[in-house]
Amino acid sequence: HKSGRRIPIEFAMTEMIVAGKKSYISIISDISEKKLIEGKLKESEEKFRSAFDSTAIGMAIVAKDGSFMQVNDAVCK
């Protein structure tokens, strides 16, 4: 970052010929917000997984056709 702090980036580069000379085009994108959102999603998924696995109430994830995709231990008991 121009302030001197480090930020996560995505980098892409491609080679091309311009006026008979080899040239390169590169794109550097700041993905700070993307990383923040991914972290929040991971945290949310971990909270759901913990609640799903440890609750005494039976919980299931069911497909549109009615088949069980995943059940917790309480359903099995």
Approximate strand percentage: 35-45%
**What gross morphology would you assign?**
elongated
Order of helices and strands: EEHEEH
Mean pLDDT: 94
Instruction: Give the CA-CA distance, first to last residue.
Output: 54 Å
Rg, Cα atoms, Å: 23 Å
Query: What is the percent of helical residues?
Result: 25-40%
The side-by-side strand order for the widest beta sheet comes to 1-2
Given as residue ranges, the uncertain stretches (5+ residues, pLDDT < 50) are none
Q: Largest beta sheet, briefly?
A: 2 strands, antiparallel
Helical/strand content category = alpha+beta
Q: How many DSSP H or I helices? A: 2
Compute the number of strand runs. 4
Question: Summary?
Answer:
With 77 residues, the protein is α+β, with helices and mostly antiparallel strands. It has helices spanning 32-54, 73-76, and strands at residues 9-18, 21-30, 60-62, 68-71.
Can you walk me through this structure?
The protein has helices at 32-54, 73-76, and strands spanning 9-18, 21-30, 60-62, 68-71. The longest helix is centred in the middle third of the chain and has 23 residues, at 32-54. The protein has 77 residues and is an alpha+beta fold. Helix content is 35%, strand content 35%. The protein is built from two helices and four strands; from the N terminus they run ββαββα. Strands 1-2 form a two-stranded antiparallel ribbon. Strands 3-4 form a two-stranded antiparallel sheet.
